[in-house]
Amino acid sequence: MTRLSVLDLAPISSGATARDALRNTVDLARRAEDAGYHRYWLAEHHLTPGVASSAPAVLIGAVAAATRRIRVGSGAVQLGHQTPLTVVEQFGTLDALHPGRIDLGLGRSGQRARELLTTPPAAPQPADPQPADPPAPGARTVRGLLIPPPFSFAALAKHPLFALAGALLQQPGAQTPDFAVQVDEIIALLAGRYRSDEGHEAHAQPGEGAEVELWVLGSSGGQSAQVAAERGLPFAANYHVSPATVLEAVEAYRDAFKPSRDYPEPHVMVSADVLVAPTEEEARRAGEPYGLWVRSIRSGGGAVRYPSPEEAYAHEWSEEDRALVADRVDTRFAGTPEKVVEGLRVLKEATGADELLVTTITHDHADRVRSQDLLAEAWADAGV
Prior knowledge:
The strands form 3 sheets. This protein has an 8-stranded parallel barrel, surrounded by 8 helices. Strands 6-7 form a two-stranded antiparallel ribbon. It has 384 residues and is of the alpha/beta class. It starts with a strand and ends with a helix. The chain has 15 helices and 14 strands.
């Protein structure tokens, strides 16, 4: 059966605090372990009113200490904000405290911001014959999976908050090295074979010899997919962040893959936004705030505190607003357990995923717990 794992942003609901969100994260992780999920990953976001996962290494430690078996990791550490040595020491410490359970997922920043300003949208790909009523102009289906038209992040990258976050997360004048160089330094430090250009050795303690599982996360067929493939690392592709480019990402990774000791074949995990409830009506109500929350992200100010259904119902939507969030809303798997399991089965088959990574955000913590439990039970029953 295909493994299911969880990605958590530690969302802060309207009327709640970061303390509430972090307590909910620890509780959800315990329940994920009991339900049989394989991994529990924490995201990294900064200067975001509605997200508490700004220090993933710290939060990973709390989650790992509160659980017993489930793997715990980052989805993903943003290397533009830290040096490879800092990352290796942090995750080496986590591995020393929780041996054999820590995943180190790596992502990019800095370089990505420049790409957002210069990269044209991906070229359209062939669609299935006669797709069934796409929800947005330009959408297509590929092997049954909805692929919306590409969303341009260029305007988002120009928002003042984007530049402010970059300035506050780096020392003045600091330059982010190339992502491939950073990943190679992390690999070398973990393996105990780091040498500087001048030939000097460096040995990270803790860190050297740590049994962390190294992943690369990416949203397109660009550098992240290439770096993972060329080093024989597993790759996590983001359908929930950039559904338009998920097929491009996994195809580029597989095409460039070079076998490694740990991975003789490509290994892909694909993420998805999900919401499961006993009935369609309950899923619609709990899921109503999702579009408004995505709108806050796409508008550039960072995710707001997650609205209640009542707050979402009160929002007056413009056509511009709807277009801004359409790709994310249309590609969320929401509904009864049977409906969501079928959607995830299509995602798995269309992408060839070896694992799936699900993320669920609701205003009420109980709805998130219920969704997670219902999905785990239905997935096991279906034997996908």
